[in-house]
Amino acid sequence: MYSWVGVRRALTPGLEAEVPYTIAAVDLAEGARVFGRLEGPEPTSPGATVTATFVDHDEWTELRFRPVEVAE
Amino acid sequence: MSDGRSAAVVGVGYTPFSRDSGRSVLDLARAASADALADAGLRGADVDGIGSFMVMHDSVKCQAVATTLAVPGLRWSVDLDLGGQAPCHLVGLAASAIESGHADVVVLYRAMNGRSGSRVGTMTFDGPAASWRYPIGYDAYLMYVAMWAQRFLAETGQGGEDLGAVAVAQRAYAVDNERAVRRRPLTTADYAAAPVVVSPFRADDCTVEVDGAAALVLTTVDRARDLARPPVLVASSVYRAGPRSGLDIGDHLLWDDYTRNYTNLLREELFARAGLASGDVDLAEIYDCFSSTVLMGLEGLGFCERGGSGAFVRSGATRRDGALPVNTHGGLLAEGYLHGMNTVAEAVLQVQGRGGVRQAPRHEVCAVTSGALMDGSALLLTAAR
Fold it and tell me: Nearest Cβ partner of A11 from B139, B155, B199?
C-alpha cells in the first residue's frame, strides 16, 4: 500500500451509509499501481501488504483490497 | 526584445467574495476586470488582449467579457481549459504576448459562482479516468490531494501538526484581510478539535468555495511608468507538467511520486530565468487548495529542506515578521477558492507595497505558484526599479 485516504464524511450523495471507508493506492507485485477500497480499519502508515479480492455488483466487478499482515 | 517592452502587472481588481453573489458570472468578470483597469488608471478602450481559464464550463469566455468592457478590438485572446494550475501560466502567456508585441494592454480574470453555482470540489469530471474513480467513492478533489498528503507526510516524517501550523499561520493574516471569508482567529487547539473530513485533512486544511472574481492588468514597463500604480515586473514564468500527468485533473494513477509535485520540476527554470535563487525571495504566495500543498511548495521551491517545511512554518518563519512571509492574504484556505487568481493578485499588491497591515516588510521579490499536484505554474514578480 503506497498511500491511502480515510473518508470520514461522504462528499457526494449516495455514499452516506458507506462512511467511514478507506481508499488505498496499491503497487501490485506485478508492477502497476491501482486504487481500490481497503477493508478493515484505516491504516496509520503506508507500507502494509494487501491482497486483492473481487466483489460483484449488479453491472460491474469491484477490485477491493484487504490487509494480509500488519505493517512494520 | 527591449527592456521597455518587458511585461509588468499594473493593476488588480476584485469583486467581494461570498457564498451567494446573486450575480451572473459575466457580471462578476466584468466588475473585477473594470476594477483592475480603474486601479491601473486605464479603460476598456485601452485593452487589446484578454485571458481567462475555467473548469468544466464554470465561467464565461473572454470574448463576452471584452464585449462588456467595450474593448474596441482584440489582438490576443486565450481561454484556458484549466483550474488552479492556470493563473501563473496565464500571466506568463500574457507577458510573452506583450514582450513580443502581440498585445499592449492585457486583462486577465477568473470569475465564478464557485459556491452557489458550479462547485469544482465535488464536480464529476468527464473522461475515462473518472469511470473507475467514482464507483468506489474516490470522487472528490479533496481526496486526491489527501492521497498525496498522506504519503508526503509519512515519507518526510511530518504529520497533522505540520498541516495545522499552515492553517493557523495563514489565518493570522486573514484576520486582517477584509476580503477573506474565514476571519475568525484560529488556534492550534481549535484546529485539532475539528473532526477529520478525509484523512489527513480537517475543515481548516481545506479551502472555502466562493462566488467572486479577481482580475489583473498587464502592459509594457514603459507604459506602466506613466500609470497610477508601481509596476510589478514578471521576472520569470514557468509552466510544467510531469510525465504521465493523467487524463484529468484528478487522475494521478500513473504519477510515480506523491511526495513531489510540479514545484520540484519547475524550480530550476523558474529561478534561472530571473537570474535569482530561492534565497533572494522576500515572500511567497503558494497555491493552497489544501494545506499540504504549501508544505510541498516550500520544499519543492527550495525554501526548506525536504521534510523541513512543517518545522519551518511552526517556527513562525512564514508570519509577517518571519524570514519568508507566506500567503499573506490568508491563502485560498481563508480568503477563498478563486483558484489562485487571488493569490497572484495578492502577490502584486505586496510587491507594490499595498498590503496594508498585512504588508511584508521586504517585498522586492515574490514567488507565486499555481497548482497542487502533477502540473502547475509559477512566477517570480519583482519591483521595477
Answer: B139
